[in-house]
Design a protein that fits this description.
With 97 residues, the chain is mainly β. It has 1 helix and 7 strands. The mean pLDDT is 84.
Length: 97
């Protein structure tokens, strides 16, 4: 599934980046990365969920910490998550992703 993420460094949120998820569990996510991200960094992400609710698109919004990263993939531990249902796409994120 496509994943959109941004990494915060020293309290400053970075730009949104688009990638592809490789593996996911209830407490973690692994996705493709173009470069290593420092372990311990805070990350915010959202995924377009494959299921729908009352024919409306669902998204998973999550935050977490980087636990492993190299130039090919990054793994995070999810610290918070929530699903949202919306009939309107999130233009601010999609416009910058």
């Amino acid at each position: 599934m496509p994943v959109h993420y941004r990494v915060s460094r020293r309290g400053v949120a970075g730009r949104w980046v688009e990638s592809i998820s490789l593996d996911m569990s209830s407490n973690g996510l692994c996705f493709r990365s173009r470069h290593a991200i420092p372990v311990g960094s805070h990350i915010e992400l959202w995924l377009e969920w494959p299921a729908r609710h009352d024919d409306q698109p669902m998204e998973l919004h999550a935050t977490g910490l980087i636990v492993r990263s190299n130039t090919y993939k990054t793994a995070i531990r999810i610290t918070s998550r929530r699903f949202t249902v919306s009939d309107v796409e999130a233009p601010a994120i999609r416009a910058t992703a």
